């Protein structure tokens, strides 16, 4: 069985976050979604648990970072083509996300990044198949 990853992120408004990621084409697993947290399904093995701040704080003894003011992680997702990178990044910007960095184009690697409504930074990256071995 492949290892799954569950990335846990604090969000200010769970309803806004769910609407944003739904507009990007993702779904939520109702089995792991409550009034305090929602399980964003990114792929068969990748999930993001979006938690209200008080729910997120139960899992740590440290202060919870406000991603609008400090970077805590950059979440990178692969894409199947340059066009798919642009499609997802453009959809994110049109759905309430904000511009993070200028596009990166290294010939064999192309990517764009955006901030979700809570300030978490997401990258979408395409790697030429011949270069991924």
Automatic annotation (TrEMBL):
Residues 3-127 form the VOC domain. InterPro entries: Glyas_Bleomycin-R_OHBP_Dase, Glyas_Fos-R_dOase_dom, VOC_core. Pfam families: Glyoxalase. PANTHER family: BLR2408 PROTEIN (PTHR36503:SF2), BLR2520 PROTEIN (PTHR36503). This is VOC domain-containing protein.
């Amino acid at each position: 069985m492949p290892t799954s990853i569950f990335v846990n992120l604090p969000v200010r408004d769970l309803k806004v976050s769910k609407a944003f990621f739904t507009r990007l084409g993702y779904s939520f697993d109702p089995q792991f979604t409550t009034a305090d947290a929602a399980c964003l399904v990114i792929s068969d093995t990748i999930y993001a648990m979006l938690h209200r701040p008080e729910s997120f704080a139960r899992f740590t003894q440290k202060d919870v970072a406000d991603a609008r003011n400090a970077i805590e992680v950059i979440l990178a997702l692969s894409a199947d083509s340059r066009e798919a990178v642009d499609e997802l990044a453009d959809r994110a910007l049109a759905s309430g996300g904000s511009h993070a960095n200028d596009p990166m184009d290294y010939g064999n690697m192309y990517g764009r990044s955006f901030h979700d409504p809570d300030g978490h930074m997401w990258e979408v990256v395409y790697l030429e198949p011949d270069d991924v071995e």
